[in-house]
Automatic annotation (TrEMBL):
Domain Alkyl hydroperoxide reductase subunit C/ Thiol specific antioxidant intervals: 8-132
A Pfam short name: AhpC-TSA
Organism: Silicimonas algicola
Protein name from the UniProt record: Peroxiredoxin
Entries under InterPro entries matching the protein: AhpC/TSA, Thioredoxin-like_sf
GO function terms (MF aspect): antioxidant activity; oxidoreductase activity
Signal peptide: none
Amino acid sequence: MQEQFAPGTTFPDFVLPDHTKTKRRLSDLQGDQLMVLFLTRGFFCPKDRQHVLELVRFHPQMVVGYTQAVTITTDDWHTTNNYRQQTAAPWPFLYDEDRVVQKQLDINEYTDTQHDVMIPHTVVLGRDLRVHKVYNGYYYWGRPSMSELHSDLRDLARQTYEDWDITKPALRKKWDEGDMSHFYPYGDDSVSMHELMLEMAGAIDQYAGKAKHTG
């Protein structure tokens, strides 16, 4: 992956069709939450399928941890749906038959002359698609374990949420005074509790025109 996508940079806001053939913008899928993005070889790869199965078991923790998951594959629409359904993955799968992501990020797996796929990467993203960490999964052991993702997301959440440690006297004072501006989501005008529950429920339709966090 090119150096401009190093930690601290902004990941490209790609627009691609999802498994329902609806075009989705990454920033809309993210909303005001954290995100883990999986760039995959595709359904044919046993390493990718095994990693997805691990992620399916981990995904409920991402939901309650206010973290979105998105997969991008170079498969066609039909194969993308098979991939998602046969692994029981509940998050959006985007398909990129034109290899837009592969080309822009310069991650062509040139050792595979048959499938023209991307080198698998896992990208941990903070708000506004800010890159926190990138894993190169060309070899299976290069992919993050679920404990590593847990650790990454803990660090990122600690940096993101002002109310990470609500035992701080200053935070308690603000709450008692009715100042909720430092507490998520109570003081966040960009997301209502209703919208947050929809995000946690994985309601696909809520992604259209989703307001981004502006704080």
